[in-house]
Every structure is written in structure tokens, then in C-alpha cells.
Amino acid sequence: MSAGSLPRPDRTTPPSTGDGVNPVPVHIAMIMDGNGRWARARRLPVAAGHRQGAESVQQCVRTAIRQGVRYLTLYAFSSENWRRSAEEVGDLTSLLRFYLRHKINELHSQGVRLRIIGEPERFEGSLREELRRAEALTLNNTTLTLTLALSYGGRADIVQAARRLAEEAAAGRISAENISEDMLDEALQTGDMPDPDLVIRTSGECRLSNFLLWQSAYAELVFMDVLWPDFGEAEFLEALSRFAGRQRRFGGRPV
């Protein structure tokens, strides 16, 4: 499900102010890692970790709204997650279906717009329809855009964008020599969203794992040792505090 035809915002938050303090990030992207380890440490089934992780998502949405964040993008299911056991994939999709049915009205009342990027067509038909209905219900909300990356891979996103531009060039609608970074930006599934200012990953792992690879070129990266089910408001605010202390120059000199 691609982005709607909204006016395209600025790609990034402005650089740090002269006092070295960043504004609140416009767009935060999160790699939610550690559900399985959280469950195993408690001798619980992995599904219990995913359920507790879903509670963390709700806390993050509420905190993001209170802090004035405008875009929150969550790596909910990577294209590589299909390699997991059929039981775990089933648990994840069942949990997604539960929250679409029982929590979407709460998100709607909070002014949250739900968007999906990735390959949702890989999920079975009834779940795709529930995703479509949730997107349609919340389409005009403006408080926070919550994007779920489902069956998403950053490399595949770049490839499909390049393919779209190649098709346009082959049809004579654009010139290959004039293809620019901005054009590729717009061809990505996130083309009408600003790039993430801050990428947070939990569980102590320090890698992007094929998430928003192009879009995160100038993002600040914060890696936290907490497992995702234990991530709450305090951890969210800690990540914002780390972001505030960074000096963002986008390749330029300090002011």
C-alpha cells in the first residue's frame, strides 16, 4: 500500500540550533527488537513477548503524541521474518489482526493516521482487507502518522524505486540523465514523508537490519540495551535526550 498523494514535507528536521540543542525529531523510526529474548528469559512462549511488545507500541504512540513527534515508523515485520517458524509468523499475524480490530478506534480517536509500507500483499486476504480498512478509517488524521513496515526490506524498497524510474525513462517520460536523488526519494514507499531524524533500536544490537536504508542516511542512531517489551515512556524520553545532545550538520561545518 503506497503513500497517499499528500504534499511532500521537508526531508529532514533543521540542523541543530546555535546552542547545540536539537528540536524534537519530526520523524522517529524504531527497530523493535528483543521480544523473543524477553520471553525466553521468563520461560514463556515467544508469543508472550510479542504480546508485551504490542503494549510497548501503544506506550510509544502516546508518548510520541505528547512530545509532538509527527511521524513514527515501526519495523513491525521484516521481509526476512518470513523465514521464522510458521507458528511464530502465525502468532505475529494474529496479534496484528487483534490490534487492528480492537485498537484502531483508539488510534483514530487520538488523531493517528495508520499507514502501511512493505509488501502487505504477501499476507492472506482477510488481513490485507483489515489493513486497508484501518488505513481508510484514519486517512484524514493529522496528529501523528504511524507507519507499520510489514514484510518490508530497505533494499527491496530501493530496487522497486529504481525500477519505477527505469520504466519511466524507457517510456520516454523522463530522461535517464536527469534522474536525481530527489526523484528516487519520491519513488520510494516513503516518498511523501520526511526522512527519519532519529532511528532507535532496542536489545543492544547495533545495526539497521535492512530498515529504511536510503532514508536513514542522515538520521541519528540510538542503540539501547533494553529489550523491546521493557521499552516505555522513560526509555523513549532517554532516546529523545540523546538526540537533543547530538549536533546535526548534514555534511556541513558546526555553526
From TrEMBL:
GO MF annotation, one: ditrans,polycis-undecaprenyl-diphosphate synthase [(2E,6E)-farnesyl-diphosphate specific] activity
Annotated binding of substrate, by residue: 34-38, 50, 78-80, 82, 84, 201, 207-209
SUPFAM superfamilies recorded: Undecaprenyl diphosphate synthase
GO cellular component entries: cytosol
Keyword Metal-binding carried by entry: yes
Protein EC: 2.5.1.-
Residues involved in Mg(2+) binding: 33, 220
Alphabetical GO biological process terms: polyprenol biosynthetic process
InterPro entries registered for this protein in UniProt: UPP_synth-like, UPP_synth-like_CS, UPP_synth-like_sf
Keywords: Magnesium, Metal-binding, Transferase
Catalytic residues identified in the record: 33, 81 (proton acceptor)
Cofactor note: Binds 2 magnesium ions per subunit.
Chain positions covered by the region annotation Disordered: 1-23
Cross-referenced CDD domains: Cis_IPPS
Keyword Nucleus attached: no
PANTHER family: DEHYDRODOLICHYL DIPHOSPHATE SYNTHASE 2, DEHYDRODOLICHYL DIPHOSPHATE SYNTHASE FAMILY MEMBER
Protein family: Belongs to the UPP synthase family.
Quaternary state and interactors: Homodimer.
Protein name: Isoprenyl transferase
Lineage of producing organism: Bacteria, Pseudomonadati, Pseudomonadota, Alphaproteobacteria, Acetobacterales
